[in-house]
Design goal:
The protein has helices at 43-93, 117-123, 125-137, 142-147, 149-166, 218-245, 256-259, 263-276, 283-301, 307-321, 327-343, 364-368, 385-399, 406-441, and strands spanning 21-26, 37-42, 186-188, 192-193, 203-204, 208-209. By secondary structure, the protein is mostly helical. It has 2 domains: 1-68, no CATH class; 125-442, no CATH class. The strands form 3 sheets. It has a two-stranded antiparallel ribbon with strand order 1-2. The protein has a two-stranded antiparallel sheet with strand order 3-6. A two-stranded antiparallel ribbon has the order 4-5. The radius of gyration is 29 Å and the shape is flat.
């Protein structure tokens, strides 16, 4: 947009009207504070430009007012009462107290639930089952869990959250017809899934009811599971394309610039779109469309593919989409290992604290004032925790062969950490701690 810097409009003429032309200096394509170029505008053009400029400034001022209200009015209230409000909603939905008033201690205002594990287990049976399962499957002994609070937290993060919620079987794309399960419905229905190439018989999956403490996070859980499953399938297809084209899987482990450059990025986008259209048409049509995209991807790496190679790619595509390819389990385990390790990740560099004031991203350059570039780093490099976490997660996913989906996976990985840490903050000491200790003792 052209922003007027100085007006040279004159009022005159025999009839007292505006002159038909206005000499008006404007800046065009200069960011260094220069004088720019001079353009001649008619009075109508100048009026339109000035009105547009004022309209833009008014919109900016309005946004600044909203940012101020968010940062100085709403944000402090959310920070002060947000967790209490979430606990209040939870208490009203799952009454643990014996008086049935929706509070945990009978007064209607307290957010401190009873430490009686029996009462908690009665009110939250799904959470009790989930805790029992994670304690039984934990790599730590019950003695270690009783002694160390850190061990209990690690067990909940890795075994309880990653293994038994996010990566709970079935993991095939078609295995979960209900995208948003409730606490009364299983997160995994009694569908069947072939887990390995050796197992020819289908293994029934026991229904699992989502824990009550995760009842407010059903949408996030569904989104994380869907993106991770589609990423596994898409990465398996890209792996076959790279292998049969002769370039090897090194292209799926390098930096994003190498992997998603030019036509490869175009094919990646087409692959994501084709895989998202599972409900359109028959399975055969779906597999054929995805197969064509995978063949096109292989041709980007090797334009001289034979007809037999193309047919092989299509056959392997069908096997992957049907959950019959053993590489799926390999990649799923790799992805699970990244999620497990990132649950315990801590930044090795100084993290800039983020303060919610204007809603704008806070970077190190904006904090140090002047935006001077530090030695060995970019002036625009973001040193917030979110940015550091996602960068580390991207590198992990790329090293494991998920470079095609590294950005999306890093985002949901960060979301998964935030979801479970909020759950621990809300219900860890009051509910989960009591259930874990009771399960270890019993």
């Amino acid at each position: 947009m052209l922003i007027p810097l100085e007006s040279a409009v004159e009022f005159g003429g025999g009839e007292g009207g505006w002159k038909q032309t206005v000499s008006h200096p404007i800046s065009i394509g200069t960011n260094d504070g220069g004088e720019g170029t001079t353009a001649t505008l008619s009075s109508l053009q100048f009026a339109i430009a000035s009105t547009l400029y004022l309209h833009t400034k008014a919109g900016t001022c309005r946004q600044e007012v909203l940012d101020f209200r968010l940062g100085h009015l709403l944000a402090p209230r959310i920070h002060a009462f947000g967790k209490e409000y979430l606990r209040y909603l939870f208490q009203n939905k799952f009454t643990i107290g014996g008086d049935g008033d929706g509070s945990l201690d009978g007064c209607g205002t307290s957010t401190t639930p009873p430490t009686d594990a029996t009462a908690i287990a009665t009110a939250l049976p799904n959470t009790k089952t989930w805790v029992k399962e994670m304690v039984d499957q934990s790599t730590h002994s019950t003695e270690e869990l009783l002694i160390s609070e850190e061990t209990r937290a690690e067990t909940l993060l890795i075994t309880g959250w990653v293994d038994n919620i996010l990566f709970r079987n079935p993991r095939s794309v078609d295995a979960e017809p209900n995208p948003t399960p409730t606490t009364e419905e299983p997160i995994n229905n009694t569908d069947t899934v072939v887990t390995t190439e050796v197992e020819e018989e289908e293994t029934p999956i026991t229904p699992f009811l989502i824990p009550e403490v995760l009842s407010m996070d059903l949408h996030s859980i569904s989104q994380i599971r869907t993106i991770t499953k589609l990423s596994v399938v898409g990465s398996a297809l890209a792996l076959h394309a790279s292998a049969l084209s002769g370039v090897g899987d090194s292209v799926l482990r390098g930096s994003s610039g190498v992997v998603v450059d030019g036509k490869v990025e175009e094919c990646r986008g087409r692959l994501v779109q084709a895989m998202a259209e599972r409900g359109v048409g028959t399975r055969e049509v779906y597999e054929a469309e995805v197969g064509r995209v995978v063949v096109d991807l292989a041709k980007v790496w090797n334009a001289s593919l034979t007809t037999d190679t193309e047919e092989s790619i299509k056959n392997r595509t069908s096997a992957v989409l049907r959950g019959e390819d053993p590489v799926l389990k390999l990649l799923d385990n790799r992805m699970r290992s990244v999620f497990r390790s990132m649950m315990l990740w801590n930044p090795q560099t100084q993290v800039v604290p983020v303060r919610l004031k204007t809603g704008r991203t806070l970077t190190l350059s904006s904090v140090t004032g002047g935006g001077q570039q530090q030695q060995g780093s970019s002036a625009s490099e973001d040193y917030t925790y979110d940015a550091l976490f996602q960068n580390a997660a991207k590198e992990e996913f790329r090293s494991k062969g998920f470079a095609f989906y590294a950005t999306e996976l890093a985002e949901v990985n960060l979301k998964s950490c935030r979801v479970i840490n909020l759950v621990l903050d809300l219900y860890g000491a009051s509910i989960l701690e009591a259930l874990v200790l009771d399960e270890c003792i019993s």
